[in-house]
Q: What sequence folds into this?
């Protein structure tokens, strides 16, 4: 999930989740960014579960 979270930041920078990470952890230290990526991974897991179960696309994500 952590690897997926890093990929999410790279390929979906306009999504609400990526913007949340950048606002909260983007300017912090290396340690805080590592803590933040785990938090993002957890949020992303929930968002992807909602996508699979209910078809809800995460806000701001580009699906092609």
A:
């Amino acid at each position: 999930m952590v690897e997926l979270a890093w990929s999410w930041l790279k390929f979906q920078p306009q999504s609400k989740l990526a913007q949340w990470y950048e606002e909260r952890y983007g300017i912090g230290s290396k340690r805080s960014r590592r803590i933040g990526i785990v938090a993002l991974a957890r949020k992303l897991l929930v968002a992807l579960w909602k996508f699979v179960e209910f078809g809800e696309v995460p806000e701001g994500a580009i699906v092609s």
